[in-house]
Amino acid sequence: MHYDLLDCNDKLNAKSQSKIIDKLLTKGDRRVLEYTMTFINALGNECLGRSYLLQKGDLVETLVKILKEEQGDTHLR
Question: pTM score, two decimals?
Fold first, then answer.
């Protein structure tokens, strides 16, 4: 959280157009997406991790969109 590795802090990175987390979730291959979702899930299990992830205003919408696009019962779902 202190080093903002995933560029989730919109206030600190307001000028940054290309967020690392957006690239990992949308532009990576399938395996990168699965590992990123697993990492986000692990972070979200802790209070401090949830607080960090929720600094990115549109993260929940992005995650829901990814899950809705999944066909069938996959590893991501």
Answer: 0.79
